[in-house]
Amino acid sequence: MTKRILLLFLFCVTFIGNAQSYSEGKIEQFVSDYIKNLQLNKIDTICVYESYCVGYVMTFDSSIFDDPEKCTDDQTNSPVYLFWKEKGKTFLSKVNYCYEYSEIMISNDRFWEIYFSNKDIIENEKFKRFEYESEVNSKKKVYILGVDHTSHNNFKFIINNKIIEKRFNNFDLQKDHNSKEININYNNNINLKSKSIIELLKQITSEAEKNNTFKKIKSR
Predict the structure, then answer these.
(1) What is the Cα–Cα distance from 47 to 43, expressed in whole angstroms?
(2) Range of the domain at 124
(3) Which pLDDT band holds residue 22 (cuts at 50, 70, 90)?
(4) What is the DSSP letter of 166?
């Protein structure tokens, strides 16, 4: 079967920040408009979640580019997910460049409880870079280790117009690198309250995608 290789040279990506490309900039605007519409409807408890990779190569069946129902933008610019509370219930929707999607009511919303029970902790806790110790001239020194190609998971809570954001570079969540450099910030990072929220948001959105829960309303 014919394959196509997409080489994605993605530079510094920020969460609801600077655009990577034309479509990424459009997604940011779509997300902003969605949030404004929610707020106009007196909704004041919103969570925005995004998961993406920076600098990677992906292989796709060429057929996906010939299928008008497929949103190829999802292959290059990851969708953004919005959660919100309305009349005591939690809703979820998806934003990408190609389609508008329906709103889904979900019951698996324990991330709100974790957030509100630990709001002050989450606001102040720090996600730390991958650091390791090495001995140089009989002295221990601490070094920062990073890679160009890695995945990220970010969330933003908008509660009564107050915004709290947390960004996770998954490389910094590794215990070690090549079984040599040991991440001295590993325990700090994996035990963050915000990390447990990220895991729940990832689980909810992954299951929704796997089950084809998001229904298209119309093309953009």
Answers:
(1) 11
(2) 3-219
(3) very low
(4) E
